[in-house]
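Reopening this ticket.

The earlier resolution said the output was attached, but the attachment link was broken on my side. Pasting everything inline this time so it's all in one place.
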Amino acid sequence: ESSHHAALHGLYFPLKFDYAQPSKTMLNLPFNICPKTLTRLGTDYSQVEALYEKYRSDLTSVCDEMAQVRARILAGGYSADFSHGEAEILYLLVRETQPETIVEISPCFGYSTNYILAALTHNKKGKMTSYEMTESTNGIPTEKVIRGHLSSKWDHARWSIQIGDASKADI
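Inline output:
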C-alpha cells in the first residue's frame, strides 16, 4: 500500500474558490490545509486518513480504472502530470465537499479531469467545466484528446470543455 502523505507537499487543486470569502465548506475542510493559501498547517494527517477510510471502496475502484487510463495516456505519447497521491487527494476533496460547480483550469490531457469526474459521478451531483488554451496537440483537437482519455465509467454529461483563455471567460 502506497503512502498517501507525500502528496500533501505542494498540493495543487484545479478548483475555483473565492479566496477573499471562503465558503463555510472551505473553512471546515477535513484537511490540514489553509483555505486561503492551500498550504499545509502541520503534520496531523488523521483527517485525511479518515477520508481514505470513508471512501476506500470507491477510491480503490477509481485507482484500478485510472491505472489503465494513465497507461493509455502515456502510451499515446501524452503526459499525466498529476501524481497518483495528488489525484487521490483531489478525488477525496471533491467527494467530501460535494461541490455543485467545479472549474478546472488547464486539464492538459485529462488525467486530473478523470479523478474529478469520477468523484462527481460517485457523488451523483455536480458539474465541471474545463478550460484549456491549447487548441490542438500533435494536430489533434485538444477536446478530442481529452475526451479520448476519459474513462467510460464516469458520467460524461457532468463535464464540458471550453477551449480558450479562462481569464476572459464569464466564470
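Reporter confirms the inline version is readable. The CA atoms of residues 62 and 147 lie 17 Å apart. Helices lie at 24-27, 46-54, 56-75, 84-97, 111-123, 142-149.
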